[in-house]
Design goal:
Elements (H helix, E strand, L loop, with lengths): L6 E6 L5 E7 L2 E4 H9 L9 H6 L1 H16 L7 E3 L4 E3 L8 E4 L4 H10 L17 E4 L1 H4 E2 L3 E4 L7 E2 L2 E7 L15 E8 L2 E2 L18 H5 L5 E9 L10 E6 L2 E7 L7 H9 L9 E3 L19 E6 L3 E8 L1
Parallel strand pairs: 6-17, 8-14, 9-19
Antiparallel strand pairs: 1-2, 1-5, 2-3, 3-4, 6-7, 10-13, 11-12, 11-17, 12-14, 15-16, 15-18, 18-19
Helix pairs in contact: 1-3
């Protein structure tokens, strides 16, 4: 990490309550206590990551200063060894979780071949806009290391490694040029999908009521998230971040954000024309090739999934019946 670098996290304190912390190297610093020790104030009551995101323009630079103070050993009373801390989902809980569909070139090509469909035209060339669906946050989000029960009604739960944007400023009708100014940072999600419940049986093919998004995308634990938030300023070139996923140590997805169809900025800008994006909202930006559906391999009880995103970190999950 660079000198001012840190990662913003939620963690469980001794009483099990969620608190905001920053990870500095191998230490975790409670934000409220750390700011109080460094600045002699109450840290602006920054007990939660959501509260921090609601004041991101003010608090973000203070967290950089706090990280420097920790490295200089001038603010140590509020630190703990990271190995002794239970991390929670970084944002508890996002107001809205938007998920991009079919947004990686390699994934679209892979799925078209698997389903014997013609190759799709270039989305920009034919005037398409980014396309998203929504997941509920509280039922779906799980922290890194969580043991997730597979839904009883599905036998085809698939993995989807994704880079997610965490909104840090209210935005409405923003331009592509200005869109990323409203993003606080990046995290990792696994957009789990029950592939055998995409369509409702006995509903006509051309019916607008054929698709069952709740059963396919919104079951309990359907969005592992974490381990923390990497501030956007620390993420480097977000247009070429590596992204990989392993199931039981076998590499399944291996790609880069260079393969997205609609850029991160385009997604933020488009969504802001539909709704006001709020601090703490999450945008999952799409998954690359390598999902289980293309190879007929789905998650089973006992499977362990690891997702790595360059400069962000790793998200771990275990699956149970």
């Amino acid at each position: 990490m660079r000198d001012c670098s840190y990662r913003l996290a939620s963690y469980a304190n001794a009483d099990g309550a969620a608190r905001a912390g920053i990870v500095v190297d191998d230490r975790l610093v409670d934000v409220e206590q750390g700011l109080a020790a460094r600045d002699g104030d109450e840290g602006g009551s920054m007990r939660s990551v959501l509260a921090i995101l609601e004041h991101w323009q003010e608090v973000g630079p203070r967290l950089q200063q706090l990280a420097r103070a920790v490295r200089a050993a001038t603010t140590l009373s509020a630190t703990q060894a990271l190995s002794e801390v239970k991390l929670l989902a970084p944002v508890m809980f996002p107001g809205t979780v938007f998920c991009a569909g079919a947004n990686y070139k390699d994934h679209v090509k892979e799925m078209s071949q698997a389903l014997n469909l013609p190759e799709e035209a270039d989305a920009h060339a034919i005037g398409l806009k980014p396309w998203h669906f929504i997941k509920p946050s509280a039922p779906c989000i799980r922290e890194t290391g969580a043991r997730i029960s597979l839904p009883r009604y599905s036998r085809c739960v698939d993995w989807e490694a994704e880079i997610a944007l965490v909104i840090g400023r209210y935005c409405r009708d923003v331009s592509v040029t200005d869109a990323l100014e409203h993003v606080a940072g990046l995290t990792i999600v696994n957009d789990l999908s029950a592939r055998d419940h995409l369509k409702r049986e006995k509903v006509p093919v051309d019916s607008p009521f054929r698709f069952d998004w709740v059963s396919q995308k919104c079951f309990e634990g359907a969005l592992p998230m974490g381990p923390w938030i990497c501030p956007l300023d620390d993420a480097g070139d977000i247009d070429s971040l590596g992204i990989k996923l392993w199931v039981n140590g076998e590499l399944m997805q291996d790609s880069s954000s260079a393969n997205v169809i609609f850029s991160f900025a385009e997604q933020v800008a488009h969504l802001s024309t539909r709704v006001t994006l709020r601090p703490g909202d999450l945008i999952a930006t799409g998954t690359p090739a390598g999902c289980g559906a293309a190879r007929g391999r789905y998650l089973r009880p006992g499977d362990r999934v690891r997702i790595w995103v360059e400069r962000v970190g790793e998200l771990h999950s275990e699956f149970a019946a």
